[in-house]
Design goal:
220 residues; alpha/beta; 46% helix
């Protein structure tokens, strides 16, 4: 079995699905003080790109507008959001790469630090086989604003992938992983074939030194 693993934000997607969803929620009136909320989330997104975000703090803020909302209500709104904001921003090169791995019989997975309620519908649209994402906690099918389990962030991606692999009855002999971010270095170092896609400056330099493959899909 060969696995092709893909980060989502700024890798397959030109942008960050959580950041785009934050703006969507603010526009829909799901946030009490949109100016303060979006200012705080944008500062945290900048910290993420600098490799210094504490994800627990970000999730506590960005899941708070969902507290008490039923999963059906959120899923319906996410479907509208994905069609309007995500589908147009998916890199054509990324779709082609997914198709290439699919033709070669490889198993496709999205592995993202973003929350499952966003990542899973995008994965379904891309016809990806499996998803590892941050798991929002639910109580009677309503969001609590908390998360459950290991966050799929930094080394947590490796831990979650290893746990998933232990559940499969497969002989996995090759894994590729495509990512844009220095935050994914633990998983990039775990796989047979690390590929830097639209890399941030830190990852770009490491990819150069390690002679990893590099793909640049944004116009110069």
């Amino acid at each position: 079995m060969r696995l092709a693993l893909f980060d989502l934000d700024d890798t397959l997607l030109d942008g960050d699905c959580s950041a785009l969803w934050n703006t969507w929620m603010a526009d829909r009136g799901w946030v009490e003080d949109p100016v303060d909320y979006l200012g705080r989330t944008r500062a945290m997104n900048a910290a993420y790109h600098e490799g210094r975000l504490r994800l627990e703090t970000y999730l506590a803020l960005t899941l708070s507008p969902l507290i008490g909302r039923h999963t059906d209500e959120v899923a319906t709104e996410v479907q509208r959001f994905v069609a309007a904001c995500i589908a147009p921003r998916l890199f054509a090169q990324g779709r082609a790469l997914l198709d290439q791995h699919r033709r070669h019989g490889e198993y496709l997975m999205l592995i993202s630090a973003s929350s499952r309620h966003l990542v899973a519908p995008i994965a379904a649209m891309l016809e990806v086989d499996a998803v590892i994402a941050t798991e929002p906690a639910l109580d009677a099918d309503r969001f609590t604003g908390a998360t459950t389990g290991v966050l799929s962030y930094r080394g947590g991606k490796v831990a979650r992938l290893n746990a998933w692999l232990e559940q499969q009855a497969w002989d996995v002999h090759h894994m590729s992983f495509y990512s844009d971010s220095q935050n994914d270095l633990p998983l990039l170092n775990r796989v047979n074939r690390p590929v830097a896609v639209n890399p941030d400056p830190v990852l770009a330099e490491i990819a150069r030194c390690e002679r990893w493959e590099r793909l640049d899909w944004r116009a110069p």
